[in-house]
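SAMPLE LOG
Freezer: B-3
Tube label: C17
Construct: single chain, 66 aa
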Amino acid sequence: MMHEDIVESIAYEKGLNKCKTNYSREDVITAHTNEIVINWVKDNHPEVIEQIRKFVEDDRIEEDAE
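STRUCTURE (predicted):
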C-alpha cells in the first residue's frame, strides 16, 4: 500500500474526503521541488527567510492601509 492510499484511507475514515483535487504529475513535482528548495534555504540561509517574512508583513500592512 502506498502512502497516498493510506492517507486517503484515513481521510475516508474521518470523513475528510468530501472534496477531491486531482493534481497533475507536473504539479506534484513542482510542489516537492519547492519544498526541498525552501527547506534548503531555511537550513543554509535562514536570514533570507527572515527578509522574505519582513517583506510579506510590510506588504500586507500596506494592503491593509489601502
